[in-house]
Write a structure and sequence with these properties.
Radius of gyration: 20 Å
Structural class: alpha/beta
Mean pLDDT: 92
Shape: globular
Order of helices and strands: HEEEHEEHHEHEHHEEHEHEHEHHHHHHH
Number of strands: 12
Bound molecules: flavin mononucleotide
Helix content: 40-55%
Distance between the termini: 30 Å
């Protein structure tokens, strides 16, 4: 099991000192979200296995965990995949189910089905850029039809008792920034939190998130505002909280590179120097993830596929990892995968450290990644 570092030499540590001064939690309804940095939903990535892994790494200090986005069409037609995607473990609480769709009645129906699982919150996705979602008016398609977005939120609010949140992009395009209108709708229709991915739909996953817009929304908001986009390291969490004044942040792709980031921020908040992963931590992550995957998947080939997806991200930028990653991605069995992994870590003479910042977050390649389960290296 991962260890929580002892409080040692933390006095005077620059990050610990900065962490002492920032807001560390916020409320959704009456529920405390601590720490105020949590795992952003990522379709094809943040399934129950990945979420449980992250929760275990942080010893339960993950703030909030959110399902992948789930189609209300699928839910209301009892599509087995959609029903499965709602499953969560007790260790994941507080847990939110994110739904997408475009038609208010069906959204309300889907939200009720979600609530019946016993989840703590329901979130409406107003950010997905994929044409197959947007063309039906869902995801970021709702940003082009704000009356319908309002109608959806109203219907969902009326259908469920649990707090409802919404996650938006800042707009459809640079010419159509909808952030302040969607914030107003969220407040008027009684959303309990407002999550902002700081890109437009037109950007996809390219370029950088616009945190100035996020800060402006926060300064106008009467409900908690969570900022999201381009957070890679624990320092980035502090910087976003310090500079933009948001109530919390969500971390997406950065958590695939560094699934320890939630443990690290919680440690800082508790006055501890965050633990930097060493060889044993990496190996623990892979074996724990494999065990969690085996609980959900019968076929070794599927487990292996997910392990490769993780290796592609987590080893990026590590010393000498480029060729190790290639061989891992070509491995034919779990046994071969773990042999190669052990051999790679055995070959490291120095402690594990990243050679380069993983700066581009695979930018631009994400649309494919989100809607097939194929990983683009
Ligand atoms: C592979 C992938 C799948 C995603 N799926 C979802 C999703 O299901 N629901 C959602 O609200 N956002 C989804 N997103 C967007 C992320 O939650 C987040 O807003 C975005 O990646 C920006 O944050 P980041 O820079 O920290 O990655 C997805 C992003 C990626 C990369």
């Amino acid at each position: 099991m991962p260890k929580v570092p002892a409080i040692q030499d933390a006095v005077g540590h620059p990050l610990v000192e900065r962490a002492a001064k920032v807001q560390k939690e916020f409320l959704i309804g009456s529920r405390r979200i601590y720490p105020n940095a949590y795992l952003a939903p990522m379709s094809g990535v943040t399934d129950i296995c990945f979420r449980r892994l992250v929760s275990r790494l942080a010893q339960g200090r993950t703030g909030l965990l959110v399902s992948e986005f789930i189609s209300v069409e699928g839910l209301t037609r009892e599509n087995p995949k959609s029903m499965r995607q709602m499953a969560f473990a007790a260790e994941e609480r507080p847990f939110s189910i994110q739904i997408f769709g475009a038609e208010a009645k069906r959204m309300a129906w889907g939200a009720k089905i979600a609530e019946d699982t016993g989840c703590d919150f329901v979130e409406i996705n107003c950010g997905c850029p994929a044409p197959k979602v947007v063309n039906k008016g869902g995801g970021s398609g709702l940003l082009k039809d704000l009356p319908n977005l309002a109608a959806n939120l109203r219907a969902v609010k009326a259908a469920v008792q649990v707090p409802v949140t919404i996650k938006v992009r800042v707009g459809w395009s640079d010419d159509l920034i909808t952030l302040f209108d969607t914030l107003k709708i969220a407040e008027e229709e009684g959303a309990s939190a407002f999550v902002i991915h700081g890109r437009t739909r037109a950007q996809g996953y390219r370029g950088l998130a616009n945190w100035d817009l996020i800060a402006e929304a926060k300064s106008r908001a009467s409900i908690p505002v969570i900022g999201n986009g381009d957070i890679l390291r624990v320092e980035d969490i502090l910087q976003r909280l310090e500079t933009y004044g948001v109530d919390g942040v969500a971390v997406g792709r950065g958590a695939m590179h560094n699934p320890w980031i939630f443990a690290q921020i919680a440690d800082l908040y508790e006055g501890r120097v965050p633990h930097l992963p060493v060889r044993e931590d990496f190996l623990w992550v892979f074996t724990e993830y494999r065990d969690l995957l085996r609980e959900e998947m019968d076929l070794e080939v599927r487990v292996l596929g997910k392990l490769k997806q993780m290796a592609a991200r987590i080893l990026k930028g590590l010393r000498g990892a480029a060729s190790a990653r290639l061989s891992l991605l070509r491995s034919q069995s779990e046994a071969e995968f773990f042999d190669l992994l052990n051999a790679y870590f055995d070959s490291l003479s120095a402690p594990v450290s990243r050679l380069e910042e993983v700066a581009d977050l695979n930018g631009g390649e994400e649309e494919e990644l989100s809607f097939g389960n194929t990983f683009k290296n």
